[in-house]
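Model it.
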Amino acid sequence: MLVEFCIGNYRSFRDPVTLSMVAADLRSQDKQLDENNVFAAGRGLRLLTSAVIYGANASGKSNLIRAMGLMRNFVLRSAEGTKPTGGIEVEPFRLSTSTEKQPSYFQIIFFVAGKRYRYGFEAIGEQVLSEWLFHTPTIREARLFERYGDSFNISDSFREGRQIKEKTRPNALFLSVVAQFNGPLAQSILEWFRAFHVVSGLDDRGLLEYTLESFESGEHRDTVRDLVKRLDLGINDVEVRISKFTAENLPSDAPEAVRQLASQMPEVEFKQAVVRTRHQKYDAAEQPAGIESFKLDEHESEGTKKLFALAGPLADTLKTGQILVIDEFDARLHPLVTQAIVSLFNSLQTNPHHAQLIFATQSTDLLDRRFFRRDQVWFTEKDRQGATQLYSLAEFRVRNDASFERDYIRGKYGAIPYVGDLGRIVSEAT
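Modeled.
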């Protein structure tokens, strides 16, 4: 479970900002929202099942999600993926002389096996300047380790890291190195990061690979089928055939690029997936007359392709209680489909394991009190110095009968683009 994520001095973020999944002390007009969109996480803490991020183009929505993905990937790959010397993929805020040479800041608070942890680091160029891990075993938070450059302060509760500090390179994370050397607590935290999925709604290939893996392993296969059938009413079923081959037994329909690659690597085993959708066929009297099969990549719409690609991550997240973060969530999806997906997370019936969905969108159809509490709605907006500010709708006084969407479009909450007089620009140009 994710509690909060904090980022500072990274790309368009100058000052530290925090995206919190902690439920605010408020009540919705519709009591079902409070019952379905909030869950207990222990010791009086209540967390949200979902959060949506709005803002103008280039306001920082994607940078926030990019920061989450960077932190996740650096934690998972730091120990084995970096060279003894090499750059860390951080980028400080470059529109201020006071920050351009300062480190980027990342911190995240989460639960693992019912225990609360706070982990973070500061990094710049080729060096991790600081790193810390705290837990809350009782009421008060306690240190597990703190790192400042080459200096480490390790508590007795994190003895697994005692002999590992000398093995940690300046451009690697101590937590990742301890996990690589089989530290049990460090490994459990890395497993949490593996379940913290950050994807782009524009990257159908990456999403599709995820879904195809679910089909190949049999994991969540039926759930993926059900999702596609229910969210795309024209599809009766989905069939996936995955064939494996080498250069010696290439299938006749293998693409030319695959043929060339296979000829260069004759010992490598390749996989080819063919996804087919099945549709009901009718006769002249509009009676069922069999089933027609279509290739997904050749005959289906871009929206259907996106829906199938996204079905795997959605099924996995809901069934295992993980976290899914999506940039450009609504790209190529009908508003009713995005509403249906959000409703899967905001429901005790379809989300019994308290999976969490965080996404950025431009679709104001979702900006509605029927779907979200005020503390689930977030905005990004740049100030005059070009720095992104992040704030919640819960910070505003909103009438019970107010329309979130209408007030947002009118500029009441900020975070909208300033378009100006385009007609004047065109007339002056002509």
